[in-house]
Protein backbone atom coordinates (compact mmCIF):
# COMPACT_ATOMS: atom_id res chain seq x y z
CA UNK A 1 0.00 0.00 0.00
CA UNK A 2 1.14 3.56 -0.66
CA UNK A 3 1.44 6.19 1.99
CA UNK A 4 -1.23 8.10 0.11
CA UNK A 5 -2.89 7.31 -3.19
CA UNK A 6 -5.36 10.00 -4.15
CA UNK A 7 -7.38 10.13 -7.32
CA UNK A 8 -7.64 13.83 -8.04
CA UNK A 9 -11.00 15.10 -9.34
CA UNK A 10 -9.66 16.37 -12.64
CA UNK A 11 -6.84 14.02 -13.28
CA UNK A 12 -7.05 10.23 -13.40
CA UNK A 13 -3.77 8.47 -12.74
CA UNK A 14 -2.79 6.46 -15.82
CA UNK A 15 -1.67 3.64 -13.50
CA UNK A 16 -3.73 1.55 -11.10
CA UNK A 17 -2.56 1.18 -7.51
CA UNK A 18 -1.57 -2.42 -8.25
CA UNK A 19 0.48 -1.40 -11.30
CA UNK A 20 2.25 1.26 -9.22
CA UNK A 21 2.92 -1.20 -6.46
CA UNK A 22 4.43 -3.75 -8.87
CA UNK A 23 6.51 -1.12 -10.63
CA UNK A 24 7.90 0.28 -7.35
CA UNK A 25 9.03 -3.18 -6.29
CA UNK A 26 11.29 -3.20 -9.38
CA UNK A 27 13.01 0.12 -8.64
CA UNK A 28 15.80 0.85 -6.23
CA UNK A 29 17.12 4.25 -5.20
CA UNK A 30 20.90 4.92 -5.30
CA UNK A 31 22.63 3.32 -2.27
CA UNK A 32 19.29 2.33 -0.72
CA UNK A 33 19.54 -1.46 -0.31
CA UNK A 34 15.88 -2.46 -0.67
CA UNK A 35 12.99 -1.38 -2.97
CA UNK A 36 11.45 2.03 -2.30
CA UNK A 37 9.29 1.82 0.85
CA UNK A 38 5.66 2.47 -0.27
CA UNK A 39 5.09 4.92 2.61
CA UNK A 40 7.62 7.27 0.94
CA UNK A 41 5.33 7.67 -2.09
CA UNK A 42 2.28 9.88 -2.49
CA UNK A 43 0.32 9.80 -5.76
CA UNK A 44 -2.20 12.43 -6.71
CA UNK A 45 -3.53 12.02 -10.25
CA UNK A 46 -0.53 12.27 -12.57
CA UNK A 47 1.70 13.75 -9.90
CA UNK A 48 3.82 11.57 -7.63
CA UNK A 49 5.96 12.67 -4.72
CA UNK A 50 8.86 10.85 -3.11
CA UNK A 51 9.48 11.88 0.52
CA UNK A 52 12.80 10.67 1.91
CA UNK A 53 13.97 10.80 5.55
CA UNK A 54 17.52 11.90 4.65
CA UNK A 55 19.34 14.59 2.62
CA UNK A 56 19.07 14.03 -1.14
CA UNK A 57 18.77 15.98 -4.38
CA UNK A 58 16.59 15.47 -7.45
CA UNK A 59 19.04 12.99 -9.02
CA UNK A 60 17.53 10.40 -6.65
CA UNK A 61 14.35 10.55 -8.78
CA UNK A 62 16.12 9.29 -11.92
CA UNK A 63 15.41 5.54 -11.41
CA UNK A 64 11.70 6.38 -10.98
CA UNK A 65 11.65 8.64 -14.04
CA UNK A 66 13.51 6.03 -16.14
CA UNK A 67 11.01 3.25 -15.35
CA UNK A 68 8.64 2.65 -18.32
CA UNK A 69 5.47 2.89 -16.21
CA UNK A 70 6.52 5.11 -13.30
CA UNK A 71 8.11 7.50 -15.80
CA UNK A 72 4.59 8.38 -17.03
CA UNK A 73 4.02 10.27 -13.76
CA UNK A 74 5.57 13.65 -12.99
CA UNK A 75 7.83 13.23 -9.95
CA UNK A 76 8.89 15.64 -7.24
CA UNK A 77 11.12 15.24 -4.19
CA UNK A 78 10.40 16.17 -0.60
CA UNK A 79 12.70 15.69 2.40
CA UNK A 80 11.51 15.06 5.92
CA UNK A 81 14.87 14.43 7.57
CA UNK A 82 14.53 12.07 10.53
CA UNK A 83 15.96 12.83 13.96
CA UNK A 84 17.78 9.62 14.73
CA UNK A 85 18.70 7.91 18.00
CA UNK A 86 22.18 8.74 19.33
CA UNK A 87 24.92 7.31 21.51
CA UNK A 88 23.53 8.98 24.68
CA UNK A 89 19.86 7.99 24.93
CA UNK A 90 19.42 10.22 28.02
CA UNK A 91 20.60 13.36 26.18
CA UNK A 92 18.16 14.87 23.67
CA UNK A 93 19.40 15.61 20.16
CA UNK A 94 18.74 19.33 20.53
CA UNK A 95 20.92 20.25 17.59
CA UNK A 96 19.90 17.63 15.03
CA UNK A 97 21.80 14.49 14.05
CA UNK A 98 25.41 14.85 15.19
CA UNK A 99 28.09 13.45 12.91
CA UNK A 100 31.65 13.56 14.22
CA UNK A 101 34.44 13.55 11.65
CA UNK A 102 37.60 12.06 13.04
CA UNK A 103 41.05 10.90 12.00
CA UNK A 104 43.56 8.90 13.98
CA UNK A 105 46.38 10.87 12.37
CA UNK A 106 46.82 14.62 11.77
CA UNK A 107 47.01 16.23 8.35
CA UNK A 108 44.97 13.66 6.43
CA UNK A 109 42.32 16.22 5.44
CA UNK A 110 39.78 15.76 8.25
CA UNK A 111 38.82 19.47 8.34
CA UNK A 112 38.63 19.69 4.54
CA UNK A 113 36.37 16.66 4.43
CA UNK A 114 34.19 18.02 7.30
CA UNK A 115 33.70 21.34 5.52
CA UNK A 116 32.93 19.84 2.14
CA UNK A 117 30.56 17.23 3.59
CA UNK A 118 28.69 19.94 5.53
CA UNK A 119 28.35 22.11 2.41
CA UNK A 120 27.35 19.13 0.29
CA UNK A 121 24.63 18.09 2.80
CA UNK A 122 23.32 21.66 2.63
CA UNK A 123 23.16 21.40 -1.15
CA UNK A 124 21.19 18.19 -0.72
CA UNK A 125 18.48 20.23 0.98
CA UNK A 126 19.46 19.91 4.67
CA UNK A 127 19.85 22.58 7.34
CA UNK A 128 23.45 22.09 8.46
CA UNK A 129 25.79 23.36 11.18
CA UNK A 130 29.49 22.71 11.65
CA UNK A 131 31.42 22.87 14.91
CA UNK A 132 35.18 23.26 14.81
CA UNK A 133 36.28 21.06 17.71
CA UNK A 134 39.87 21.01 16.50
CA UNK A 135 41.18 23.07 19.44
CA UNK A 136 44.81 22.50 18.43
CA UNK A 137 44.40 24.28 15.13
CA UNK A 138 40.92 25.57 14.31
CA UNK A 139 41.01 25.81 10.51
CA UNK A 140 37.33 26.35 9.69
CA UNK A 141 37.57 30.17 9.68
CA UNK A 142 40.26 29.89 6.97
CA UNK A 143 38.38 27.26 4.96
CA UNK A 144 34.97 28.92 5.19
CA UNK A 145 36.12 32.57 5.44
CA UNK A 146 35.08 35.37 7.79
CA UNK A 147 38.09 35.17 10.20
CA UNK A 148 37.94 38.89 10.81
CA UNK A 149 34.39 38.68 12.17
CA UNK A 150 34.19 37.65 15.86
CA UNK A 151 31.26 35.54 17.14
CA UNK A 152 28.53 37.61 18.81
CA UNK A 153 27.39 36.68 22.33
CA UNK A 154 23.69 37.23 23.09
CA UNK A 155 22.06 38.31 26.40
CA UNK A 156 21.82 34.65 27.51
CA UNK A 157 25.61 34.31 27.02
CA UNK A 158 25.14 32.09 23.97
CA UNK A 159 27.39 32.41 20.93
CA UNK A 160 25.64 33.15 17.66
CA UNK A 161 27.20 31.02 14.92
CA UNK A 162 28.27 32.57 11.64
CA UNK A 163 26.44 31.69 8.47
CA UNK A 164 28.91 30.90 5.69
CA UNK A 165 27.92 29.57 2.26
CA UNK A 166 24.51 28.57 3.67
CA UNK A 167 25.75 26.57 6.69
CA UNK A 168 26.08 27.59 10.38
CA UNK A 169 29.61 27.65 11.76
CA UNK A 170 31.01 27.86 15.29
CA UNK A 171 34.76 27.79 15.90
CA UNK A 172 37.24 28.84 18.56
CA UNK A 173 39.02 30.47 15.64
CA UNK A 174 36.22 33.08 15.60
CA UNK A 175 36.80 33.80 19.32
CA UNK A 176 40.55 33.76 19.88
CA UNK A 177 43.70 33.87 17.83
CA UNK A 178 44.51 30.46 16.39
CA UNK A 179 47.92 30.54 18.10
CA UNK A 180 46.28 30.90 21.55
CA UNK A 181 44.02 27.91 20.98
CA UNK A 182 47.02 25.75 20.08
CA UNK A 183 48.44 25.88 23.64
CA UNK A 184 45.29 24.40 25.22
CA UNK A 185 45.85 20.97 26.63
CA UNK A 186 44.03 18.12 28.35
CA UNK A 187 41.07 18.99 30.58
CA UNK A 188 41.15 22.66 29.54
CA UNK A 189 40.75 21.75 25.89
CA UNK A 190 38.00 19.21 26.72
CA UNK A 191 36.11 21.79 28.78
CA UNK A 192 36.46 24.45 26.06
CA UNK A 193 35.11 22.02 23.50
CA UNK A 194 32.09 21.04 25.51
CA UNK A 195 31.37 24.69 26.22
CA UNK A 196 31.63 25.58 22.55
CA UNK A 197 29.22 22.76 21.78
CA UNK A 198 26.67 23.66 24.49
CA UNK A 199 26.92 27.43 24.43
CA UNK A 200 26.42 27.99 20.73
CA UNK A 201 22.89 29.05 19.88
CA UNK A 202 22.33 26.70 16.96
CA UNK A 203 19.17 27.11 14.92
CA UNK A 204 17.08 24.00 14.20
CA UNK A 205 19.46 21.73 12.29
CA UNK A 206 19.12 18.46 10.43
CA UNK A 207 22.81 17.65 10.75
CA UNK A 208 25.60 19.04 12.94
CA UNK A 209 29.05 18.09 11.67
CA UNK A 210 31.76 18.11 14.35
CA UNK A 211 35.35 18.46 13.13
CA UNK A 212 37.16 16.56 15.92
CA UNK A 213 40.74 17.17 17.04
CA UNK A 214 43.05 14.62 15.36
CA UNK A 215 44.10 11.52 17.29
CA UNK A 216 42.58 9.05 19.73
CA UNK A 217 43.75 10.47 23.07
CA UNK A 218 41.90 11.60 26.20
CA UNK A 219 40.32 14.70 24.66
CA UNK A 220 38.80 12.74 21.79
CA UNK A 221 37.65 9.99 24.14
CA UNK A 222 36.02 12.43 26.61
CA UNK A 223 34.27 14.20 23.77
CA UNK A 224 33.06 10.95 22.21
CA UNK A 225 31.69 9.88 25.62
CA UNK A 226 29.96 13.15 26.49
CA UNK A 227 28.31 14.12 23.21
CA UNK A 228 25.04 12.67 21.93
CA UNK A 229 26.54 11.36 18.67
CA UNK A 230 24.50 9.84 15.85
CA UNK A 231 27.45 8.52 13.85
CA UNK A 232 31.18 8.91 13.20
CA UNK A 233 33.00 9.33 9.89
CA UNK A 234 36.64 8.26 9.81
CA UNK A 235 38.99 10.07 7.42
CA UNK A 236 42.26 8.49 6.34
CA UNK A 237 44.75 8.58 3.49
CA UNK A 238 45.72 5.25 1.85
CA UNK A 239 49.19 5.44 3.49
CA UNK A 240 50.19 2.59 5.79
CA UNK A 241 51.05 4.97 8.69
CA UNK A 242 47.59 6.55 8.54
CA UNK A 243 45.71 3.27 8.32
CA UNK A 244 46.83 1.91 11.70
CA UNK A 245 45.62 5.17 13.28
CA UNK A 246 42.31 4.97 11.40
CA UNK A 247 41.75 1.51 12.89
CA UNK A 248 42.54 2.88 16.37
CA UNK A 249 39.86 5.55 15.79
CA UNK A 250 37.29 2.93 14.79
CA UNK A 251 38.12 0.91 17.93
CA UNK A 252 37.83 4.00 20.16
CA UNK A 253 34.35 4.91 18.90
CA UNK A 254 33.13 1.32 19.09
CA UNK A 255 34.32 1.09 22.72
CA UNK A 256 32.14 4.05 23.72
CA UNK A 257 29.12 2.88 21.72
CA UNK A 258 29.35 5.39 18.85
CA UNK A 259 28.34 3.79 15.53
CA UNK A 260 30.78 4.21 12.61
CA UNK A 261 28.71 5.53 9.72
CA UNK A 262 31.49 5.27 7.16
CA UNK A 263 35.05 5.94 6.07
CA UNK A 264 36.37 8.43 3.53
CA UNK A 265 39.70 7.77 1.89
CA UNK A 266 41.13 11.21 1.19
CA UNK A 267 44.11 11.91 -1.10
CA UNK A 268 43.43 8.51 -2.69
CA UNK A 269 45.42 9.51 -5.76
CA UNK A 270 46.96 12.66 -7.15
CA UNK A 271 44.98 14.09 -10.02
CA UNK A 272 46.68 16.61 -12.31
CA UNK A 273 44.25 19.51 -12.83
CA UNK A 274 45.75 20.15 -16.30
CA UNK A 275 45.88 16.73 -17.95
CA UNK A 276 43.79 14.60 -15.54
CA UNK A 277 46.66 12.08 -15.11
CA UNK A 278 46.28 10.01 -11.92
CA UNK A 279 49.08 8.83 -9.65
CA UNK A 280 48.61 6.79 -6.44
CA UNK A 281 51.35 8.60 -4.50
CA UNK A 282 50.21 7.37 -1.06
CA UNK A 283 49.56 3.79 -2.25
CA UNK A 284 46.32 2.29 -3.51
CA UNK A 285 43.08 1.43 -1.74
CA UNK A 286 44.49 1.34 1.83
CA UNK A 287 41.38 3.04 3.25
CA UNK A 288 39.10 0.84 1.17
CA UNK A 289 40.74 -2.28 2.62
CA UNK A 290 40.37 -0.97 6.22
CA UNK A 291 36.69 -0.30 5.48
CA UNK A 292 36.27 -3.83 4.20
CA UNK A 293 38.17 -5.41 7.10
CA UNK A 294 36.21 -3.42 9.71
CA UNK A 295 32.92 -3.82 7.80
CA UNK A 296 32.45 -0.07 7.61
CA UNK A 297 30.86 1.51 4.49
CA UNK A 298 33.36 3.25 2.19
CA UNK A 299 31.74 6.64 1.51
CA UNK A 300 34.25 7.84 -1.07
CA UNK A 301 37.79 7.94 -2.41
CA UNK A 302 38.62 11.60 -2.93
CA UNK A 303 41.63 12.67 -5.03
CA UNK A 304 44.45 14.98 -3.98
CA UNK A 305 43.63 17.83 -6.30
CA UNK A 306 44.93 21.41 -6.38
CA UNK A 307 41.40 22.72 -7.05
CA UNK A 308 40.20 21.30 -3.71
CA UNK A 309 43.10 22.93 -1.81
CA UNK A 310 42.91 26.29 -3.59
CA UNK A 311 39.21 26.78 -2.74
CA UNK A 312 39.77 25.90 0.94
CA UNK A 313 42.78 28.24 1.23
CA UNK A 314 40.67 31.14 -0.02
CA UNK A 315 37.61 30.45 2.16
CA UNK A 316 35.67 29.51 -0.98
CA UNK A 317 35.33 25.71 -1.03
CA UNK A 318 34.88 24.17 -4.47
CA UNK A 319 31.60 22.45 -3.57
CA UNK A 320 30.06 25.83 -2.64
CA UNK A 321 31.58 27.84 -5.49
CA UNK A 322 31.12 25.31 -8.31
CA UNK A 323 28.44 22.83 -7.21
CA UNK A 324 28.26 21.20 -10.66
CA UNK A 325 32.03 20.62 -10.93
CA UNK A 326 32.82 16.88 -11.26
CA UNK A 327 34.71 16.95 -7.93
CA UNK A 328 31.76 18.66 -6.22
CA UNK A 329 29.37 16.05 -7.64
CA UNK A 330 31.68 13.34 -6.25
CA UNK A 331 31.64 15.00 -2.80
CA UNK A 332 27.85 15.38 -2.91
CA UNK A 333 27.61 11.70 -3.71
CA UNK A 334 29.62 10.91 -0.54
CA UNK A 335 27.38 13.23 1.50
CA UNK A 336 24.28 11.51 0.13
CA UNK A 337 25.72 8.08 0.99
CA UNK A 338 26.52 9.39 4.47
CA UNK A 339 22.93 10.59 4.98
CA UNK A 340 21.50 7.28 3.71
CA UNK A 341 23.86 5.17 5.86
CA UNK A 342 23.17 7.23 8.98
CA UNK A 343 19.44 6.61 8.55
CA UNK A 344 19.79 2.97 7.47
CA UNK A 345 22.07 2.05 10.39
CA UNK A 346 19.77 3.79 12.89
CA UNK A 347 16.79 1.80 11.54
CA UNK A 348 18.53 -1.44 12.37
CA UNK A 349 19.11 -0.22 15.96
CA UNK A 350 15.77 1.32 16.94
CA UNK A 351 12.95 3.22 15.23
CA UNK A 352 13.55 6.86 14.29
CA UNK A 353 11.44 9.76 15.50
CA UNK A 354 10.74 13.00 13.68
N1 LIG B 1 41.77 16.05 -1.29
C1 LIG B 1 42.58 17.09 -1.15
N2 LIG B 1 43.16 17.69 -2.23
C2 LIG B 1 44.00 18.75 -2.08
N3 LIG B 1 44.34 19.28 -0.91
C3 LIG B 1 43.78 18.73 0.19
C4 LIG B 1 42.89 17.64 0.13
N4 LIG B 1 42.50 17.32 1.40
C5 LIG B 1 43.13 18.19 2.22
N5 LIG B 1 43.91 19.04 1.49
C6 LIG B 1 44.77 20.10 2.01
O1 LIG B 1 45.67 19.51 2.97
C7 LIG B 1 45.88 20.39 4.06
C8 LIG B 1 45.52 19.68 5.37
O2 LIG B 1 44.15 19.43 5.37
P1 LIG B 1 43.25 19.55 6.68
O3 LIG B 1 43.59 20.78 7.45
O4 LIG B 1 41.86 19.32 6.26
O5 LIG B 1 43.79 18.27 7.48
P2 LIG B 1 43.42 17.81 8.94
O6 LIG B 1 43.47 16.33 8.92
O7 LIG B 1 42.18 18.45 9.42
O8 LIG B 1 44.64 18.41 9.72
P3 LIG B 1 44.83 18.56 11.33
O9 LIG B 1 45.28 17.24 11.78
O10 LIG B 1 45.91 19.60 11.43
O11 LIG B 1 43.54 19.00 11.90
C9 LIG B 1 45.03 21.63 3.81
O12 LIG B 1 45.83 22.62 3.24
C10 LIG B 1 43.99 21.16 2.79
O13 LIG B 1 43.56 22.20 1.94
Structural descriptors:
single chain; 354 residues; alpha/beta; Rossmann fold; 2 domains; 8-stranded mixed β-sheet; 4-stranded mixed β-sheet; binds adenosine-5'-triphosphate; metal-binding
**Large-scale geometry:** globular
Helix content: 25-40%
- Point out poorly predicted stretches: none
**Highest-level CATH class of the largest domain:** Alpha Beta
Bound molecules: adenosine-5'-triphosphate
- Work out the helix count: 12
Summing up helix and strand content along with how strands pair, one would put the structural category as: alpha/beta
> Roughly what is the average pLDDT, rounded to an integer?
87
Order of helices and strands: EHEEHEEHEHEEEEHHEHEHEEEHEHHH
CATH architecture of the largest domain: 3-Layer(aba) Sandwich
Write the layout of secondary structure elements.
Layout: E1 4-6, H1 17-25, E2 41-44, E3 47-52, H2 62-66, E4 74-79, E5 97-102, H3 110-123, E6 128-132, H4 140-144, E7 152-153, E8 159-160, E9 162-164, E10 167-171, H5 178-181, H6 186-198, E11 207-211, H7 218-226, E12 231-236, H8 240-255, E13 260-265, E14 270-271, E15 278-279, H9 286-294, E16 298-301, H10 306-313, H11 318-321, H12 326-349
Parallel strand pairs: 1-2, 3-4, 5-11, 5-12, 6-10, 6-11, 12-13, 13-16
Antiparallel strand pairs: 2-3, 7-8, 9-10, 14-15
Helix pairs in contact: 3-12, 6-7, 8-9
The structure holds adenosine-5'-triphosphate (ATP).
Function: Binds and transfers iron-sulfur (Fe-S) clusters to target apoproteins. Can hydrolyze ATP.
InterPro entries: Mrp-like_CS, Mrp/NBP35_ATP-bd, NUBPL-like, P-loop_NTPase, YlxH/NBP35
Pfam families: ParA (PF10609)
Amino acid sequence: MFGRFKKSKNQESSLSQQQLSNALAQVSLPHWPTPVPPEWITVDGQHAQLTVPFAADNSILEPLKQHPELGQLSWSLQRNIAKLPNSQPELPLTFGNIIVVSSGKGGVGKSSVSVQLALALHQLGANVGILDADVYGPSLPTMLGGQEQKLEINAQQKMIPHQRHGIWVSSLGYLTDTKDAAIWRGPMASAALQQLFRDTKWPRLDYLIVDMPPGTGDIQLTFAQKLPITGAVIVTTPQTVALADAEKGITMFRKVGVPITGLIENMSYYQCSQCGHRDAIFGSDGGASVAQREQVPLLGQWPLDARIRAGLDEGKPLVAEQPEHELSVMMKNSAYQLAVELYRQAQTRQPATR
